[in-house]
Design a protein that fits this description.
This protein is α/β, with parallel strands linked by helices. The protein is built from 9 helices and 12 strands. Strands 1, 2, 3, 4, 5, 6, 7, 8, 9, 10, 11 and 12 form a 12-stranded mixed sheet that branches. The radius of gyration is 19 Å and the shape is globular. It starts with a strand and ends in a 21-residue tail after the last helix.
Length: 314
């Protein structure tokens, strides 16, 4: 099934070349199917790259998905043109009365800042509170996962003395539908200077620790009602995303180590090994299917349904 994107959005041509089934708004309008409405709050600096990464995963499912991109009104992007943002992104004040089947909040390179020191923190808090009444399930990625756990549950983040940077092995700790089909060992890219800790998560009975990594720590936490999903890594990353970050930081003169378990033989002249693509597709498919599609009401105008109980689903 196709993913519906705005007419003229540059990512459409990229996805079509990858044989991802995308559909322009005009064609989708004439189909008698209600697509899943997914809101994407894109906090990453280079927004066009993240658009491609997220839409690639949303478009590889049997569900028709209609995406809306959201930007922070209280922050001006330095790396994405204002024309692009005004053409393809909305601000919160224009949709705060609407309901969505699912929402994705991306990461942002802000780990060194206290949450309260982030310029758009008040607006982000408002949006995160709004999701509880207007979104069936919200998927938080990397820094957004730290922000969501802090805001909703008071769980702090801890700065690290080195960057968690590379592609790390993970294991499933609890069998729920979000990890249905996962291998015993799966891989995820990470790129962050902060972490949340297991003991803080386990203090909250409403949270479930679903997956972790010996090297990268906590990976996946979800609420027992399935309404909030927090992942600390970047399963959506492309093959060369970590390489681009490594080259960027070296060009800035930063003390950055090679991404771990990424280059063959730790040789940065060799093509990185892609070991997380299947995990990424399964993760996003499971979230869309089990936590969004099977739980959201057909008529969103009447609000979201009561929360599900993942403890009864395995």
């Amino acid at each position: 099934m196709p993913i519906k994107i705005p007419d003229g959005m540059p990512v459409k041509e990229i996805l079509e070349k990858e044989q991802i089934f995308v559909m322009a708004e005009d064609r989708a309008f004439h189909q008698d199917i209600r697509p899943l409405r997914i809101l994407i709050l894109n906090l990453m600096p280079i927004k066009e790259t993240t658009e491609t990464q997220i839409l690639r995963l949303l478009g590889n499912t049997p569900l028709q998905v209609e995406t809306t991109f959201l930007r922070m009104q209280s922050h001006r992007s330095k790396n994405t043109s204002q024309a692009h943002l005004e053409a393809f992104y909305k601000t919160f004040d224009t949709l705060r009365e609407e309901f969505f089947d699912g929402m994705i909040i991306t990461g942002a390179p802000l780990e060194h800042l206290r949450f309260e020191d982030v310029t758009y923190w008040p607006e982000l808090k408002t949006i995160m509170d709004w999701t509880k009444e207007h979104v069936t399930s919200t998927f938080y990625i990397c820094w957004a996962a730290q922000a969501g756990l802090y805001h909703h549950f008071g769980i702090p983040k801890y700065l690290l003395d080195h960057k968690v940077f590379g592609v790390f092995s993970h294991r499933v700790l609890k069998s729920v539908n979000l990890v249905h089909g996962f291998d015993d060992e799966f891989f995820v890219p990470h790129s962050r200077y902060a972490e949340v800790r297991v003991e803080d998560v386990l203090r909250h009975p409403e949270l479930e620790l679903i997956a972790d990594s010996e090297e990268a720590g906590v990976y996946m936490v979800i609420t027992k009602d399935g309404r909030q999903v927090f992942v600390s890594g970047h399963s959506e990353y492309d093959r060369l995303s970590l390489l681009a970050e490594y080259q960027r930081d070296r060009a800035k003169g930063l003390d950055i180590s090679l991404p771990r378990h990424y280059f063959p033989g730790d040789d940065p002249t060799k093509t990185p090994i892609m070991r997380w693509r299947s995990h990424a597709h399964i993760l996003f498919f499971n979230w869309l299917n089990y936590y969004v599609y099977q739980e959201t009401p057909y008529d969103l105008d009447h609000g979201i349904v009561p929360p599900l109980d993942i403890s009864k689903r395995s």
